[in-house]
Design goal:
Blueprint (H helix, E strand, L loop, with lengths): L8 H8 L3 H7 L60
Amino acid sequence: YIVKKGDTVTAIAAQFGLKIEDIQKANPGLDVDRISIGQELSLTVPRYKINVVTREYETGEEEIPFAVEYEDTNELYKGDTKVKTG
């Protein structure tokens, strides 16, 4: 894009449906407050075709010491066990 009289970066961005930040990315070193008539601006903004998100999950086991108590009951068959908390 060639800057014309009366142009501002804000107006150029609005005209082409861009953000000011996009124009800055496409023109490294551009001072958005100081553009000149006849200055060439790139309006090509790199767009990424894929986005990659990585997630890591970590599982582990930790032994927590606790006292074990055994209780006889008629509710279970001999040799079966049931964990009781409380």
